């Protein structure tokens, strides 16, 4: 048996307390001269043996109880032949988990925190015996084993560790630990250890996953988990928190405002230089005055190119945690927008034809030279290629689409397409509610309101919506002056209401469908339905909604992502399978790209982003789309768990074989922890039993008082 | 009134008085007042017996007033005529001087009060009374006399008697028996803390010398019932036995049985040799002892 806190053994001297008290008590007893002492002596001799035994037993119980409490405080552990769980000398299977999340790139004395963690892992590997087996893995959001299996050669581990560089991903300790438990299934020894070495960043723990992990640890008594924290000395971290372009469509050669948010976590005001680089050249510089533990916003004016995209990076002067001192961005320039216009039932009069008014709104010059390139098709004759080539669909009471075309349109939407849907024909309500809308949403058209029921104005319900950016009060007032006689009301449980009727019913709703967007307008944009088509705001309204759908569901899907997220862009229409596809990585490296032709529209998939920077998809060596990748924002939070906190979380299921190794002499602590099974609870239980027995015996001895 | 008289015989009350002579007088007077109203009236020491005058006797003894009334010569018989020699053996050893139970006198004080009362009563009856105080040996021996001044002297000696050494009751009694050839009444007042065989041998020795023997065996109430309620270290006041640390309640039953056996044996063996054995506790009123004496006295004649 070993003691983890041997200093407490000095407390064994306390065992003398009951003995001293025993004799002091005897000394304190009254001294009574008693003449017939010989009669007392005779009786006493007869009974004294039993009494003396009981008193001695009482004293022994008291001493034993004190000894048990002292031993419990000294944290005894079972070792040697007594330890059936971990007999001394049993070979170990050890998994070393080194945190390589982005936060481990913080600078500390002699390198990064990751370097310090590697050094600790190497020390553990070197300390193992020839019979022990070991495996090394890094972890961030997942476990990444560096060897295929456990090995007995520590040099292999040290070699794999030396080559490894710190990653850029976010931390997910609980998930990684769960995967480590799975990995331990490969271990060949009964006694197994996992050593988690990292900064144990406070990244928000999924309590369900933590509970599951705790239960798994509890159910495996031969597995020991050791938690070690490595950390940098405290410093003030400053970071570029966000870079955002305008939410609206960006036109070629337009000058737009690039918003930048910078923050710091120190407790003093700070002024730091801020740089903007576009296409590799510094184009802007400013001083950012940061309040204590706060942030500041800045704006850079940038001019967009003729076509393609504007890429760049916003930088701060590097501090001791460089990964979040820069942030990459992409501003996509949208040229002409390919719009597929789907028409429904033919109209007898031009004033009832929505195509007439919507077409005029999207192509005011009727010369095909505006911002929108229109392709008009009857909905019943919708072709898949034309759907693939369009950036957005404007559907005017589509009717009798058929199952295949409905499914294609649904795939288009769910795959990231956008559709502006006008539903105002009283003849089509049943079709819309039963066939069309159920494909994508739970929204339904209410009863048709004809002209005899009176007219309603439109009311702006979402003035902050990106589609309405730039709409002032005057514009909104003008829009709200328009009246419609024939319209529906939409049920509102499906999406965001953008415009309402005067009586409060929903007129225009935006609904997310998969990765795409659907905007439903519950009216007919015709002269027969009201005076909206003649409003000065009709053209901006239709164009804004169409452009919004085209830009937010465009080819880059998500042009700015974080490390670890998938790199996916929309493939160009008509891309041939023989085209040479590749992904240009930061540092002039290349990676293959997969064409997903099953998706609608087709996608180019470049795997997961491994590091921050600009990733450019190339088709036949020509750039097609760029994605900006940045360090996960969670990795910029310089807040860490105490190892004991993490221990509490994962040991909540009652697992006692989880230890937080802290302090300078962690090797010694590890050595002590390895030596056996904790027994202090048993000693405390034994002490309680002894005290209970002492109490019973004491009462029994004293019982004669009443007799 | 009766209550007041009983109070005069209560050792607790009497022990508050100062001076053995006062105690003795109070005790005896209270006893006698009570006795006149008691069934023991016939034993009254005040009874003056008349008998016919025998020619040749001293005519001073004739009660002329009776003669005047009855025309007969009657002689008034006085107590001193019995010519009783009483010797009070009072144990003053260390065992007699142990701390008493609450509210009662110590055994030594009780023995002194009882001895004083008996001496006073004997003296009042014109009997000669002597005193022997002893522990492991006779400390003081006062020969019996019946004078008033002797009684005062005896009281004074008794008051200051103190031994403080171990008891040797049997040895002392045996040695004194050899020295007292003149028959009389031997009154032993002791806790008899000694070997019972030796004690009985000493008492029998007196009987062998034709003495009448009356033994007052005085014990403290707690020595009879072991009425202690706390654990304590019990020590031998005479320093001869090792101390006993005990919780008395555990030993009470066995101890009481032992003491009863002891007292029964003394009583039985004394009875076999016509020795009057009177067990007393220091809480026992003195009339018990005095009545026992009177009973004995009546037998002695």
Description:
- The complex is a heterodimer of chains A (about 700) and B (about 300).
- Chain A is about 30% helix and about 30% strand.
- In chain A, the strands form 8 sheets. Chain A has a 9-stranded mixed sheet with strand order 19-18-20-21-26-25-24-22-23, sandwiched between helices.
- In chain A, β18 (about 335-345), α7 and β19 form a beta-alpha-beta unit.
- Mean pLDDT of chain A is about 85; it is low at about 80-90.
- The radius of gyration of chain B is 21 Å and the shape is elongated.
- Chain B is built from 11 helices and 10 strands.
- Chain B has helices at about 1-10, 10-15, 20-35, 65-70, 105-125, 150-160, 170-180, 195-210, 220-225, 250-270, 285-300; strands at about 50, 75, 85-90, 130-135, 140-145, 185-190, 210-220, 230-235, 245, 275-280.
- In chain B, the strands form 3 sheets. Chain B has a 6-stranded mixed sheet, sandwiched between helices.
- Chain B is of the alpha/beta class and about 300 residues long.
- The model of chain B is unreliable at about 1-5 and about 35-50 (pLDDT under 50).
- The longest helix of chain B is centred in the C-terminal third of the chain and has 25 residues, at about 250-270.
- In chain B, α3 crosses α5.
- Chains A and B meet through β2 and α2 of A and β8, β9 and α10 of B.
- β2 (about 30-35) of chain A pairs parallel with β8 (about 230-235) of chain B, so a sheet runs across the interface.
């Amino acid at each position: 048996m070993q003691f983890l806190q041997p200093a407490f053994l000095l407390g064994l001297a306390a065992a003398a307390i009951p003995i001293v008290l025993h004799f002091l008590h005897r000394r304190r007893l009254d001294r009574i001269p008693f003449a017939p002492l010989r009669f007392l002596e005779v009786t006493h001799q007869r009974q004294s043996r039993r009494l003396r035994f009981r008193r001695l037993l009482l004293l022994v119980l008291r001493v034993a109880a004190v000894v048990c409490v002292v031993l419990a405080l000294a944290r005894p552990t079972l070792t040697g032949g007594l330890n059936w769980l971990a007999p001394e000398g049993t070979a170990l299977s050890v998994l070393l988990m080194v945190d390589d999340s982005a936060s481990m790139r913080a600078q500390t004395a002699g390198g990064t925190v990751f370097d310090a963690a590697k050094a600790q892992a190497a020390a553990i590997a070197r300390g193992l015996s020839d019979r022990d087996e070991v495996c090394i893995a890094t972890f961030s959001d997942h476990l990444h084993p560096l060897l295929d299996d456990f090995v007995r050669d520590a040099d292999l581990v040290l070699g794999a560790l030396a080559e490894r560089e710190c990653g850029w991903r976010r931390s997910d300790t609980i998930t990684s630990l769960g995967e480590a438990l799975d990995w331990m299934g490969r271990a060949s020894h009964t006694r197994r250890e996992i050593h988690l070495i990292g900064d144990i960043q406070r990244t928000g723990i999924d309590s369900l996953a933590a509970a599951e992990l705790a239960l798994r640890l509890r159910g495996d008594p031969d597995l020991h988990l050791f938690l070690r924290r490595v950390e940098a000395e405290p410093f003030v971290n400053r970071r570029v928190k966000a870079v955002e372009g305008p939410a609206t469509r960006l036109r070629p050669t337009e000058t737009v405002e690039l918003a930048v948010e910078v923050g710091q976590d120190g407790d003093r005001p700070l002024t730091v230089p801020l740089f903007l680089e576009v296409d590799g050249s510094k184009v802007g510089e400013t001083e950012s005055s940061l309040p204590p533990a706060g942030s500041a916003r800045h704006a850079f004016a940038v001019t967009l190119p003729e076509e393609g995209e504007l890429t760049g990076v916003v930088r701060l002067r590097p501090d001791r945690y460089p990964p979040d001192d820069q942030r990459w961005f992409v501003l996509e320039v949208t040229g002409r927008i390919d719009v597929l216009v789907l028409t429904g039932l033919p109209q007898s009069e031009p004033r009832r034809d929505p195509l007439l008014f919507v077409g005029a709104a999207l192509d005011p010059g009727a010369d095909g030279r505006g911002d929108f390139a229109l392709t008009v098709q009857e909905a019943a004759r919708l072709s898949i290629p034309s759907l693939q080539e369009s950036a957005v669909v404007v559907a005017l009471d589509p009717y009798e689409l058929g199952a295949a075309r409905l499914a294609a349109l649904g795939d288009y939407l769910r795959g990231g397409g956008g559709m502006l849907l006008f539903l105002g024909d009283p003849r089509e309500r049943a079709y819309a509610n039963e066939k069309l809308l159920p494909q994508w949403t739970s929204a339904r058209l209410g009863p048709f309101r004809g002209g005899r029921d009176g007219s309603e104005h439109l009311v702006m319900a979402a003035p902050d919506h990106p589609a309405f950016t730039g709409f002032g009060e005057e514009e909104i007032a003008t829009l709200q002056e328009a009246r419609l006689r024939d319209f529906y009301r939409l049920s509102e449980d499906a999406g965001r209401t953008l415009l309402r009727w005067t009586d409060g019913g929903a007129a225009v709703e935006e609904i997310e469908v998969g990765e795409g967007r659907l905007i439903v307008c519950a009216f007919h944009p015709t002269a027969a339905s009201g005076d909206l088509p003649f409003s000065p705001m009709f053209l901006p309204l239709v164009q804004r909604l169409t452009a919004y759908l085209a830009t937010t569901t465009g080819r880059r899907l998500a042009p700015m992502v974080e490390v670890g997220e998938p790199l996916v862009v929309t493939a160009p229409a008509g891309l041939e399978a023989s085209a040479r596809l590749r992904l240009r990585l930061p540092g002039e490296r290349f990676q293959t790209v997969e064409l997903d032709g099953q998706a609608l529209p087709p996608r180019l998939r470049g795997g997961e982003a491994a590091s921050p920077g600009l990733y450019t998809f190339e088709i036949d060596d020509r750039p097609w789309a760029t994605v900006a990748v940045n360090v996960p924002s969670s990795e910029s939070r310089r807040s860490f768990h105490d190892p004991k906190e993490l221990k509490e979380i994962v040991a909540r299921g009652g697992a006692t074989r989880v230890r937080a190794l802290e302090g300078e002499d962690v090797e010694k602590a590890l050595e002590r922890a390895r030596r056996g099974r904790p027994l202090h609870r048993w000693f405390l239980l034994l002490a309680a039993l002894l005290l209970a027995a002492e109490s019973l015996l004491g009462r029994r001895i004293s019982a004669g008082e009443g007799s | 009134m009766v209550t007041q008289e009983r109070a005069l015989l209560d050792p607790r009350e009497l022990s508050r008085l100062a001076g053995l002579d006062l105690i003795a007088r109070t005790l005896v007077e209270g006893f006698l007042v009570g006795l006149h109203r008691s069934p023991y009236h016939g034993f009254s020491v005040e009874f003056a017996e008349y008998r016919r005058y025998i020619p040749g006797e001293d005519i001073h003894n004739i009660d002329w007033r009776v003669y005047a009334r009855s025309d007969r010569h009657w002689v008034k018989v006085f107590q001193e005529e019995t010519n009783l020699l009483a010797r009070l053996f009072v144990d003053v050893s260390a065992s007699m001087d142990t701390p008493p139970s609450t509210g009662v006198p110590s055994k030594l004080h009780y023995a002194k009060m009882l001895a004083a009362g008996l001496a006073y009563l004997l003296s009042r009856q014109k009997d000669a009374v002597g005193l022997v105080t002893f522990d492991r040996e006779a400390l003081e021996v006062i020969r019996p006399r019946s004078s008033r001044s002797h009684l005062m002297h005896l009281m004074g000696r008794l008051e200051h008697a103190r031994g403080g050494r171990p008891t040797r009751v049997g040895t002392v009694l045996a040695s004194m028996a050899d020295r007292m050839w003149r028959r009389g009444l031997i009154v032993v007042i002791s806790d008899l803390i000694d070997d019972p065989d030796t004690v009985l041998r000493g008492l029998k020795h007196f009987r062998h010398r034709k003495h009448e023997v009356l033994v007052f065996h005085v014990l403290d109430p707690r020595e009879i019932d072991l009425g202690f309620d706390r654990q304590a270290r019990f020590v031998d006041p005479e320093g001869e036995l090792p101390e006993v640390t005990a919780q008395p309640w555990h030993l009470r039953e066995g101890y009481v049985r032992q003491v009863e056996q002891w007292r029964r044996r003394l009583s039985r063996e004394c009875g076999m040799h016509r020795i009057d054995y009177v067990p007393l506790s220091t809480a026992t009123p003195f009339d018990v002892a005095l009545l026992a004496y009177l009973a004995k006295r009546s037998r002695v004649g």
